[in-house]
Design brief:
about 500 residues, alpha+beta, paralog of FGE (formylglycine-generating enzyme), 2 domains, 4-stranded mixed beta sheet, 4-stranded antiparallel beta sheet, 23 strands
């Protein structure tokens, strides 16, 4: 059979494109670990490795190597290591430093950071597409070789000298990554060379009642101890190198043999300035607020993406070709936008970026196809859920805290003009300015009594009305107006110098 040259070229281009955009194609220097079930722990060793128990994990990516000094310096601009060398793993890293690196590298590469909070109250959004530390279960599953496991004692071998740098062979120093035999998945140095931080809080008896599916460690107790794995090089004993060996340290501990390896989700992808919000159930409204906020009621939402920032004038002009704003600034939120204009922007931006527009119709007869993958306005429920911090909510009064001055531009701390986006503290999901700066349009028609009979699943507002919902408050309003539960409305054909928008996109098929 012969193939014409033109068709042959098309064939190879097609194959190349499929490979380039394969959903499970590993990023550079990372290995795809396909999900599955395995027996975690060891009944023959120490009590904190008992009992052996079944664990089932989703697929994930993990670094082929420990994070090197070259990689660390490119992101952080410094090198804290005791043993210097571009291809040596970075050392002298405490747990918080590793978290900071993951978030900064995620931002540099256009991925949504996983971590929010500070101190002992760091939270991880496992739905985000950015880099993170592996859980203990992910670390052990990868070290064992995942679905390709041959059940070795150490990662890749029953002979520690083949797989690991430790006290008997490391020449009393940290060695370059990737010089020993890799394990079944092509991962290096999971036994030996340096210790590696994991996400989980440590509890000696955790295996007695840990969940089967995707365990992420115990709930906070003292918040200080985190798990680490792998066994160090200099002074590292052979029994420390085992795949199942567990240890813990205070999160602020630093040493010449402490480093880390990064992990990430297979669903992780560049989302620009969009933040993934994992679906869930929350208590919407508040019984202590105004009458329109009552009663507090359960609402369950599907997953979605929401803008990290309010739509800026720069973004608006790139799509619409003109700037309607009274307060001019490229990085300031666009203002003086009517609801109908916000809908038009969403559709035009969707078309420009190759997505299917959500909106059709005109005037008061506009309808939204929530199954489309294009940009749209958030429903009121989506807005409040994201404003509260979604599944990571700290149940704050304002979006990201109980002190409005930390998280919001409002009447007490502003000059009454709209401010550059992203200057205040982000909320638990890494979203900025959901309290204050300017009001944001929502999809829903407004009805003061809607909460009395709104549906429990994905509420989308009344079928009709005279005014559309707006949320968040502005630089002109007192602190009561910038609460996450406060409701207000405006006629859809009217804009305001205090009113703009934030976009969302549905997670098609419920997957982020």
């Amino acid at each position: 059979m012969s193939i014409k040259p033109g068709r042959l070229l098309i064939f190879f281009l097609t194959v190349s494109m499929l490979l380039a955009f394969a959903p499970d194609r590993a990023p550079e220097n990372m290995v795809l670990v396909r999900g599955g079930s395995f027996q975690m722990g060891d009944d023959r060793a120490y009590s904190d490795e008992e009992p052996v128990h079944s664990v089932t994990l989703d697929s994930f990516f993990i670094g082929c190597f420990e994070v090197t000094q070259q990689e660390w310096t490119a992101v952080m601009g410094n090198n804290p290591s005791h043993y210097k060398g571009a291809d040596l793993p970075v050392q002298d890293i405490d747990w918080h430093m590793a978290i900071e690196y993951c978030n900064k590298r995620s931002q540099i590469e256009g991925l949504s950071p996983c971590y929010s909070g500070s101190g002992d109250n760091i939270a991880c959004n496992f739905a985000a597409g950015g880099y993170r530390l592996p859980t203990e279960a992910e670390w052990e599953y990868a070290a064992r070789g995942g679905l390709k496991s041959r059940h070795y004692i150490y990662s890749g071998s029953n002979n520690p000298d083949e797989a690991a740098w430790y006290e008997s062979n490391c020449e009393d120093r940290i060695q370059p990554v990737g010089k020993k035999k890799p394990n079944e998945l092509g991962i290096y140095d999971m036994s030996g060379n340096i210790w590696e931080w994991c996400w989980d809080r440590y509890e000696a008896g955790y295996y007695n009642d840990s969940p089967v599916n995707n365990p992420k460690g115990p709930a906070p107790v003292d918040g200080k101890k985190r798990a680490y794995r792998g066994g160090g090089g200099p002074g590292g004993r052979v029994e420390w190198l085992r795949n199942t060996a567990r240890y813990s340290l205070d999160t602020t501990y630093r040493s010449f043999d402490m480093g880390f390896r990064i992990a990430g989700n297979t669903t992780g992808k560049k989302t620009g300035n969009m933040v993934p919000v994992e679906g869930g159930t929350f208590l919407m409204g508040g019984n202590d607020g105004g009458s329109g906020e009552r009663p507090a009621h359960a609402a369950t939402l599907n997953s979605f993406y929401i803008g990290k920032f309010e739509v800026t004038q720069e973004e608006w002009c790139a799509v619409m070709g003109k700037n309607p704003s009274y307060w001019v600034g490229a990085k300031s939120p666009v203002d003086s936008v009517a609801w109908n204009e916000a809908v038009e922007y969403c559709n035009k931006r969707s078309q420009k970026e190759g997505f299917t527009p959500c909106y059709s119709g005109s005037g008061d007869e506009i309808v939204c196809n929530f199954g489309s993958d294009g940009y749209r306005l958030p429903t009121e429920a989506e807005w409040e859920y994201a404003g509260r911090g979604g599944a990571l909510s700290g149940n704050y009064k304002y979006s990201g805290g109980n002190n409005p001055g930390e998280v919001a531009w409002y009447a007490e701390n502003s000059t009454f003009k709209n401010e550059t986006v992203g200057l205040k503290k982000a909320n638990e999901l890494g979203i900025y300015d959901m309290s204050g700066n300017l009001w944001e349009w929502c999809w829903d028609w407004f009805d003061k009594d809607y909460y009395k009979n709104s549906p429990g699943q994905n509420p989308q507002g009344p079928a009709a009305g005279l005014r559309r919902v707006m949320r968040g408050g502005s630089t002109f309003n007192p602190e009561n107006y910038v609460r996450t539960t406060f409701r207000a409305s405006q006629k859809p054909n009217m804009g305001s110098t205090r009113l703009g928008l934030r976009v969302v996109r549905s997670a098609i098929g419920g997957k982020l």
